[in-house]
Write a structure and sequence with these properties.
The chain is mainly α and 515 residues long. The protein has 3 domains: 10-222, no CATH class; 224-308 and 423-506, no CATH class; 315-397, no CATH class. It is built from 21 helices and no strands. It has helices spanning 4-8, 21-37, 41-60, 64-83, 87-129, 141-150, 165-180, 190-198, 211-218, 226-260, 267-298, 316-322, 325-336, 346-364, 368-390, 400-422, 426-438, 445-451, 453-467, 470-481, 485-502. The chain is globular and about 65 Å long.
Length: 515
């Protein structure tokens, strides 16, 4: 049973997650209140803002103050961009919006990265040139301000990454830029803008929702058809299944063990861990977005699709049309195109693709591994464009054999890149590759399959579900939608039992919460 402290007080050891029973307990009471207020538009918005801030507090602690400050600042900057009388003033205000949001993001996400880089340079200069410069030290100015103002006791020597900061900063940057481009008008009500930013289903890990998609829904009357209700429940159930039954099981029982010490395992086992992580991260992240889209649908709001069977891609460009769609389109529209896109010649296009993905990798984390991951994907995209330039006939309809081969090549390229994404450091990357190429030991495969048959079954199940034809998935969704309410309740109860049996002892947060 839950205590009032469990419900209302943030715990860094127990943040509020979709995979916890506590969340569904809280969400049930939230929906009871929503059922009373949903017809009163202003009260509904205020109610959702309050719950969104509460949800962020329960997931990320006192950083909800930062969320509120950022929201208010971006609202007034957006108004200033729109009301500016000259193009120069518009540019100044949009530059302020970008500087403000990226400044916050860089401070919290890249402070250690920059300080470590500077200290590395200082060490080199001290050693090679005989300097005696001291190291820089990190200092949390926000914590210090809070301690001075409110008498709090936060640690000023550490900078903690606020949960979801990469998502809500990109969301508000796109809002300001779209106003500058004349694609949208600023919201007249700060309540509407707060609602747009703090809407809780997508707040922590996306999808990155643009104002042009979400804002028109804000003042629409609530509507939930039988089809929407059935689809929402199906998405939530599927998301929980992918996260808890497949992703968490594979992670806790195999993948984490291999990536923590690859030298204890053969090359074959290391390769299986890479395959395992490849489906784990898909089930984890797509599971989260399925739940988010389903929750939003229950409240009468439609969030954009974020995944489209990415491992069915037949080339790397196709993969990025299918994977984390809201981020890939954001990078295209607000980074790749402003860099020049494909309008300034082929060489410039290849460079723009590489830079876009390099910065996309850095967005995922302040570590050389993520930069390499993004850079390799950038090289892959550039190579694909180059290939299509020299072999344009390959753009025409391909036979099934060619599609399978190109799909396998794309899949293994993506899986290879995931090693940099998942490994805790570059040493582990080297160890895993060394084991795969020099100590494969295929003769151990039968022992591995015998010992890890449950893990292998979950990996195969994950890929099997992922590779099902889209028509079959749509048919399953429609069949569930058309089930009687009692049958839906039985399906939910059955899923709860399965999740209870399959849930690991420690609830694992969603992978993209760290970004």
């Amino acid at each position: 049973m839950f205590t009032l402290k469990d419900i209302f007080v943030y715990s860094s050891k127990n943040p509020l997650l979709y995979t916890q029973y506590l969340f569904w307990f809280v969400f049930t009471f939230f929906m009871l209140g929503y059922s009373v207020l949903y017809k009163k538009n202003t009260m509904r918005k205020v109610y959702l803002i309050i719950f969104g801030v509460f949800f962020y507090y329960k997931s990320g602690g006192y950083f909800f103050f930062l969320l509120l400050i950022s929201t208010v600042t971006d609202y007034y900057i957006g108004k200033a961009i729109y009301n500016a009388k000259t193009q120069m003033r518009k540019k100044l205000f949009v530059a302020l919006a970008v500087f403000w949001n990226l400044g916050i993001l860089c401070y919290f996400k890249y402070y250690y990265f920059f300080v470590d880089g500077i200290n590395y340079l200082v060490d080199w200069l001290n050693h090679s040139a005989g300097f005696h410069w001291a190291h820089l030290k990190t200092f949390n100015y926000f914590a210090d301000l809070s301690n001075i103002t409110f008498g709090s006791h936060f640690d000023v020597l550490s900078v903690i990454l606020p949960v979801g900061i990469s998502f809500f900063t990109f969301q508000t940057i796109s809002y300001s830029i779209d106003i500058y481009r004349g694609q949208i008008k600023p919201l007249n009500s700060i309540i509407d803008f707060c609602f747009f930013v703090t809407y809780f289903p997508q707040l922590l890990a996306g999808p990155i929702v643009r104002a042009s998609v979400f804002v028109p829904q804000i003042n629409k009357p609530y509507a939930l058809t039988n089809d929407d209700f059935g689809k929402a429940i199906f998405l939530i159930m599927g998301g929980l299944f992918k996260k808890i039954i497949i992703s968490d099981f594979i992670s806790g029982n195999f993948v984490d063990r291999v990536f923590s010490n690859p030298m204890l395992y053969s090359g074959f086992e290391n390769l299986m861990a890479v395959y395992g992580y490849t489906i784990q991260i898909y089930c984890d992240f797509s599971g989260y977005t399925d739940i988010a889209i389903g929750l939003a649908l229950l409240m009468g709001f439609h969030l954009p699709k974020n995944f489209d069977s990415p491992y069915k891609a037949t080339n790397i460009t196709d993969f990025w049309r299918r994977w984390h769609i809201s981020l890939s389109t954001w990078l295209r529209d607000y980074l790749y195109i402003p860099l020049g896109g494909n309008k300034k010649g082929k060489i410039r296009q290849y460079i723009n693709l590489f830079l876009t993905m390099l910065l996309g990798g850095l967005w995922h984390g302040a570590n050389i591994r993520f930069i390499i991951w993004g850079g390799v994907h950038g090289l892959g995209l550039a190579f694909h464009k180059l290939w299509m330039q020299f072999f344009p006939s390959t753009q025409k309809k391909k036979n099934n054999f060619i599609l399978i081969i190109s799909g396998l090549i794309t899949f293994h390229f993506v899986a290879f890149c995931w090693i940099f994404f998942r490994a805790p450091n570059m040493a582990v990357v080297g160890q895993m590759m060394g084991q795969v190429f020099h100590h494969f030991n295929i003769n151990l495969a039968s022992d591995f399959i015998t010992g890890y048959w449950r893990v292998m079954a979950m990996i195969i199940l994950g890929y099997a579900i992922h590779l099902l034809p889209s028509s079959l998935k749509l048919s399953a969704t429609n069949r569930f939608i058309n089930l009687p309410l009692a049958a839906k309740a039985v399906a939910i109860a059955l899923l709860v039992v399965i999740m209870y049996q399959g849930m690991s002892s420690a609830v694992q947060p969603f992978i993209y919460f760290q970004f």
